[in-house]
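[job 0412] stage=fold_complex status=start
inputs:
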Amino acid sequence: MTAAVLVNGSPAPVVSIHDRGLAFGDGVFRTLLVRAGRPLNWPCQYRRLVHDCLALALPPPGEHPLLAEIAAVAPGDATVKVMVTRGAGPRGYAIASGQPATRIVAAHPLPDYPEALAREGIRARWCELVLGEQPRLAGVKSLNRLENVFARSEWNDPQIREGLLCDAAATPDLSRCGVAGAQRERILDLARAAGVSCEVRDIGVEELARADEVFLTNSLMGVWPVKQLGDRAWTQFPVAGRFQERIAHDDT
Amino acid sequence: MTAAVLVNGSPAPVVSIHDRGLAFGDGVFRTLLVRAGRPLNWPCQYRRLVHDCLALALPPPGEHPLLAEIAAVAPGDATVKVMVTRGAGPRGYAIASGQPATRIVAAHPLPDYPEALAREGIRARWCELVLGEQPRLAGVKSLNRLENVFARSEWNDPQIREGLLCDAAATPDLSRCGVAGAQRERILDLARAAGVSCEVRDIGVEELARADEVFLTNSLMGVWPVKQLGDRAWTQFPVAGRFQERIAHDDT
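[job 0412] stage=fold_complex status=done
writing structure:
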């Protein structure tokens, strides 16, 4: 039988209560879509994981041992969450030298998103929570995610699939807050390779409402066009459709 | 033998890797100084714990069962850390209804602070990290503490005992960021009861340098006068001394 979880290579699905990932959110994570034991969009995912580990001065896991652990917990199709924390240490914020990191690789079921969402678009909402600005954490998928928890608790309507977060000014360019997703990075790469002009910048609520098309992206949803956001509705998603095709091609 | 850790009443010193305290820092904590099984400054500590749980919509632990667990892990003198998290749940930010919280009560050794620090004062420094502003978390001792980890890694000099954190403007009044400590609350209560006029407000670097006296406080240090901060030195600590006496009296 294959373990669905490996913690530093061991199948016990627990961490010490002294782990700094728990004590301080002192760690990072990625969420991977795995097909037949192979994580999709792996080069971006691994690059982001290394980047985020370095942002916290954590030793990044080696690529090939990590791929082996992913295949071990998810030999078929699954969602796999990878966490790297600063490991168990003494009480207090100071980092003890030579403390080994904790590496967690855990398989979860695939999400059961209806196929229609990618075709017909989703409903989204503007969240009321205003993101704080912390350039040291901007773009990093750290384990400090209470803002996202608060934002996701703003609504219960299952028809609303996603919430958009803004800082005080706009949906931000990731220099002050937010998370740089691996799927987002892949789409930017694909767009630039195809000669599509891309700008990464703050976008205010009014400007977004004037857009010809809006789509959201992460590793599990792929590309979801937005059909409704606030008062604005969209019905045509040609750009989203093209990226969906490119990603599907890339993943096979 | 007495367990040094209780996790939901059980002595195994671990949590599930699916615990949201680990995944998102979705929880709160307090650090208690315990003498002969009795946590000092308990009314303030418990009040803050309940406040912080409610800020995250977590069910606060009952006071008397929690006191019993504290005495069980620390029948003598110890530091005890209490954590309350939203417990193990499915992947994703949404909160599953009816998910039981995780309650962690863990004994640690007493800190080995030299007695001279309280008498002669400590060296402190201004941290370079600028606190982000998040009113939803301001004052709450949540498990999202990467800013503190970053700030504490700015220096290694063991002569410097503490770092002062500012937001973009000043060392803040806790409406935008920061943590409302239980010892701080006790000192404010003692001061007001003694007719000492207190203001809680932003204080900039220049104003602090002009102060007649500065002291820091938390549950473990008690009250530490500051003898050096940046270029400024202090040698007399009459106000800190008075609060040290009041606290010592209160704790016996």
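[job 0412] summary: The helical segments of chain B are 20-24, 42-55, 63-73, 116-120, 146-152, 182-193, 205-209, 238-251.
[job 0412] exit 0
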